[in-house]
Amino acid sequence: MVVLAGSLRCGILSICKYLEKYHKVDKEKITILPYLLFEPEKHIHQLENAEKVLIILRNPADRAFSLWKSNLQNGLEWLDFENAIAREQIRFHKLAHKQIKWRYLYFRGGLYSKKVKNLRELMGEDRFSKKVQIIPFDEIMSEKILKKALDIEGATSDVIPQLNKSKIPANSKIQFTVRRIFEIFSEEKIRNTGIKNLLQILCKIVMDLNIKVQDITNLNRIDKLPDTKGIYDFLKHAYKEDIEILSEDFPQFQIWIES
Fold it and tell me: 150-165 b/e with 16+ CB inside 10 Å = b?
């Protein structure tokens, strides 16, 4: 069994789908643990039978922006990028009892060095060094490196792994409100299944249209969003020290400082 882990929006789900589709890798042989680095104590037992643990880490500034876009698309966010980051600590504590709390760790979710250190200590140095391989997202999106990391043999596909790209809705408050309505209709309180299903479909249509309207305007790139480029550049600087610590044991991540 191979374990794929990382932080949220590091591409592990996309890679799993790619392996199933183009290399016919049995999905039962792959375990996805997106929260392994966040809660290693909770998931450490799932590594017992793993032959290999592949941890994929994405440039933390890119990851934060991607997570924000994903939350906007899915109706989990309504704030702009800067305010979302500023409020992440408050939100995290308010949602402490819910799994969704991890989706609001835009900045802290990209502080990898301590997370990797904690996992290393829990596993023990010998077990960690034998089982765990940590690869930058930039490299794993090369099929050659991916196949080598997972010991995949056979013909090379013409298709390389592609990350699921999130799109920003035209109005994030509408997206957030419609999702909340969708969740209410999903609860057991509404007993009429026909009405429930119809309302869920209508909510999904509204959310999809909200995204398509914005997609037409091409406002999904970081340089097209007002006041976003500045906070993105700030994040790159803020992550520098943590990346340097990570690079002491894993020099492959030095590329994030140099870029």
Answer: beeeeeeeeeebebee
Tokens of residue 173, six digits = 């408050």
Of 129, 133, 143, give the one whose Cα is nearest residue 14: 143
Q: Which residues make beta-bridge pairs with 235?
A: none
The radius of gyration of the chain's CA atoms, rounded to the nearest angstrom, is 20
Distance between CA atoms of 84 and 80, rounded to whole angstroms?
A: 6
- Note the pTM of the prediction, 2 decimals: 0.78
What phi, psi does 124 have (nearest 5°)?
90, 145
Task: Write the CA distances from 78 to 67, 74, 92, 177, 210, integer angstroms.
Answer: 13, 10, 16, 9, 13
Contact by Cβ (8 Å): 249, 255: no
- Give the ranges where the chain is alpha helix by DSSP (H): 12-22, 40-43, 60-73, 81-86, 88-94, 112-123, 125-131, 137-140, 143-150, 172-186, 193-216, 228-238, 240-249, 255-258
CA gap 2, 10 in Å, rounded: 17
pLDDT for the residue 145: 65
**Mean pLDDT, each 10-residue run in order, the chain (259 residues):** 86 77 70 90 89 91 90 85 90 84 92 96 94 86 64 52 61 74 65 68 71 54 60 91 96 87
